[in-house]
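Allow me, if you will, to draw on your knowledge of protein folds for a short while. I am sending you one protein, given as its amino acid sequence and as whole-number tokens for its backbone shapes. Kindly check, if you would, that the fold set down in the tokens agrees with what the sequence suggests. The record follows directly beneath this note:
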Amino acid sequence: MGYLDQEGYLYLTDRKAFMIISGGVNIYPQAIEDALITHPKVGDVAVFGVPDAEMGEAVKAVIEPAPGVEPTEDLAQELLTFARGRLAHYMAPRSIDFIAEMPRLPTGKLYKRLLRDTYWQSRESKI
């Protein structure tokens, strides 16, 4: 997914498969990840949609804390506040989970589907 600017330059924003549809709004995780990774207590981040009975999908952030940072509920609240101050309301994560280490393929690429599938495993339909 991407867009062209007024001068004709193409900007790639994210993969269509990663798009979150929440309440009929298309949300691209890359912009959220770009905001959260700037926080000094965040080592790595993955954002994706999780099941939500009312909205279809809700924005979920999974965070690998920076070295020496303890994953606590206070840290989750700090990061949610941080995100809300930098993103449109509908883009801000509704919740944050922590992980010790992000799953990566042998090439080093983040295995985001593995993270996402843990939240969708009990659902028949995947939006």
Residues 19-120 form a domain with the GMP Synthetase; Chain A, domain 3 fold (CATH 3.30.300.30). Residues 73-84 form the longest helix (12 residues).
